[in-house]
Amino acid sequence: MRVLLTGGAGYIGAHVAVALLARGHDVVILDNFSNSKRAVLERIERIAGRAMPSYAVDLVDLSATADVFEREAIDGVVHLAGLKAVGESVEQPFRYYRNNLIGTLHLLEAMQRFGVSVLVFSSSATVYGDVSAPPFTETMPTAPTNPYGRTKRMIEQMLEDIAESRADVSFIALRYFNPVGAHESGLIGEDPAGAPNNLMPYVAQVAVGRRERLYIFGDDYPTPDGTGVRDYIHVMDLAEGHVRALEFAAERRGYDVFNLGTGRGASVLEVVRTFEAVSGREIPYVFAPRRPGDVAVSYADPSKAERLLGWRATRDLAAMCRDAWRFQVRHPYGIDVGTAAKGERS
Ligand code: WQD
After folding, report:
1. Could you tell me the sign of the dihedral formed by the alpha carbons of 149, 152, 154, 157, in that order?
2. Beta bridge partners of 299
3. Does ligand 1 come within 6 angstroms of the Cβ of 80?
4. Is pTM beyond 0.85 here?
């Protein structure tokens, strides 16, 4: 298939591009580069050993989006472009609703105009909120607790309603748990701008000496060691799940939703210990107050994806830490930065 990958230069996007190309699909990348770097594109091509077209386009610009469909014979879309920082979405809800909802509606309009009927959408486990006890299944109620999570749930509902009204479309939503790690080449990986919000890139930056210490948000949760438990999934397992979902979507019609997780939870301290073991570096940490909005425990029941997509995560936490560490060692201050950033330390 010739696949349009929105947000394809981002952390998840680059890994999905590598997985699609490895499977023999063609990839066209659309990205506004608001939270990604152009340097990633040639690294994807280096890993894949083949070229791919890319377009610097913002989905909020409908005519520019339609132009890409005009120029490229697209068979299906993997839609990853979107703002995704929970805390930021609380401070800037209008920006999140405008970017995520209008961007998706414009993408859907361009797809309809050019007869493209297959879509895989990047959703998030954050839609479950804290009203149900894990392991989360796709039939459990959703209760997102922040604007970011609400945009994900609203888009899922838009896709479900459109699929109800049109017999010719096939839409799949994938609810990610906690993607971490990097491609084994060490050429692409998680490279956030500024101080990482997420645990794994922060731990990696402490290990490489870019940050003094890790702050562990809460040691009094009702968990075995008191720290938060999450379902960490290797980003290449996640990427391969997208390839399976796309091929599944191309063979059927209607809307469906799948959890992409390992089904296993790991605590913050377990991640720290594992990272120390694979990197040989000490990770100094201090306990800090709980972070507002955090739940104690979140992990998936991934059996529906196993059953219907024939997919399951295969890489363990040690592999996730080993691959994250390899990328961090090769890019202590991120991809494609000058020496100016080298002085950054907190
Ligand atoms: C994991 C655990 C923290 C940082 C978020 C979004 C979710 C998805 C993935 C977009 C928690 C603890 C973290 C730190 C810490 N994003 N932690 N110190 O919050 O589970 O999920 O990212 O789709 O939508 O909600 O991931 O990595 O931020 O936190 O102690 O410096 O690590 O309290 O227990 P989270 P996370």
Report:
1. negative
2. none
3. no
4. yes
